[in-house]
Design goal:
With 243 residues, the chain is an alpha/beta fold. Helices cover 31% and strands 31% of the residues. The strands form 2 sheets. It has an 8-stranded mixed sheet. Strands 9-10-11-12-13 form a 5-stranded mixed sheet, with no helix packed on it. Strand 2 and strand 3 form a beta hairpin. Helix 6 packs antiparallel against helix 7.
Length: 243
C-alpha cells in the first residue's frame, strides 16, 4: 500500500489546522478586518467591488516591532487605509514607517493617498511605479529593481521581485524572524481559481512560484492576495494551477 498520498494529506491537514488555531480576528468593521497571524504579523483585509467576481476580499500584511510598523499593500480605498493607519497607531502603539506595494493593481495601492498624506515612505518595484503611472494611479515614491530590505524596529523585512506571474511586476514580502511570506496575488489561496488574467504571464507563473518555493523553504506561513493563509501547500497549489 502506498502511504505517501495519505501522509501528505495528514501533513497538510495538520498545517492548516494549526494555522486556523493561530489566526485570530482582532478588529472588524464593514470595510476593514484585521487578523493576527503571529506575534508580530497581521493580515489586513479590505474589499473591492468587481464586475466579474463581485465583492472580493483583498489581503495585505502588517509587520510590527518595537514601536514601528510596515504595511504591505494598502487597503483598497482611502477610507479603509485611513482606518488601518489609525488602528495601528491606537492598537499596536506603532508608527507606520513604510508602505510596500507588491504590484500595480488597485487592490494593492488604492488607498496610497492616505499614506502619503501622513508622510509615510512608500516603496515598490520600479516596474510597479511605471505601470501604475501608465494606468493613472498615484505611484509609490521610492523604487527598487530586484530586492529591498527595510528595518522595522529591531528586525528586518524583505521585498523581492523573483519573476512574472499575476503581473509583470509582482513582488513578494518576507519577515524572516517569524517565517511569514506575503505572496500577494502571485500566490493563490487553497481551492481558488485562476482569477483575473488580463495582465498575467501564465507561461511563467508556475516557474516563478517554483523559484519562491526553492528560495523560501523555511517559510512556515504563506499569505495569498485573496483567501486564507496556509503553509507551503499554497505554493504547491499555485504551481499546479498554472503548470
Amino acid at each position: 500500500m502506498n502511504l505517501k498520498p495519505y501522509l501528505l494529506f495528514v501533513i497538510v491537514f495538520q498545517i492548516n489546522s494549526t494555522l486556523a488555531q493561530k489566526v485570530e480576528k482582532v478588529y472588524e468593521t464593514e470595510n476593514l478586518r484585521i487578523d493576527k497571524l503571529t506575534e508580530n504579523t497581521f493580515i489586513h483585509i479590505s474589499y473591492l467591488n468587481t464586475d466579474d467576481f463581485g465583492r472580493v476580499a483583498c489581503n495585505g500584511m502588517i509587520v510590527v516591532d518595537d514601536g514601528e510598523s510596515i504595511v504591505f499593500d494598502t487597503p483598497t480605498d482611502d477610507a479603509a487605509s485611513d482606518e488601518l493607519i489609525k488602528w495601528l497607531e491606537s492598537f499596536t502603539k506603532s508608527k507606520v514607517k513604510a508602505l510596500v506595494v507588491t504590484h500595480f493593481h488597485s487592490d494593492c495601492l488604492g488607498g496610497i493617498a492616505k499614506f502619503h498624506e501622513r508622510g509615510i515612505a512608500s516603496y515598490a518595484n520600479n516596474k510597479t511605479i511605471e505601470l501604475a503611472a501608465a494606468n493613472g494611479e498615484i505611484v509609490p515614491k521610492n523604487g527598487f529593481d530586484e530586492y529591498l530590505e527595510l528595518k522595522v524596529g529591531k528586525k528586518k523585512v524583505k521585498s523581492e521581485f523573483i519573476g512574472e506571474g499575476h503581473t509583470r511586476d509582482n513582488t513578494i514580502g518576507y519577515f524572516p524572524s517569524e517565517k511569514v511570506l506575503f505572496g500577494g496575488c502571485l500566490i493563490k489561496g487553497n481551492d481558488a481559481g485562476k482569477g483575473y488574467l488580463g495582465d498575467a504571464n501564465v507561461n511563467e507563473w508556475s516557474n516563478t512560484v517554483e523559484k519562491i518555493r526553492s528560495k523560501y523553504k523555511k517559510a512556515a506561513f504563506i499569505v495569498p492576495g485573496h483567501g486564507k493563509p496556509g503553509g507551503q501547500n499554497l505554493l504547491d497549489f499555485t504551481i499546479g494551477l498554472f503548470r
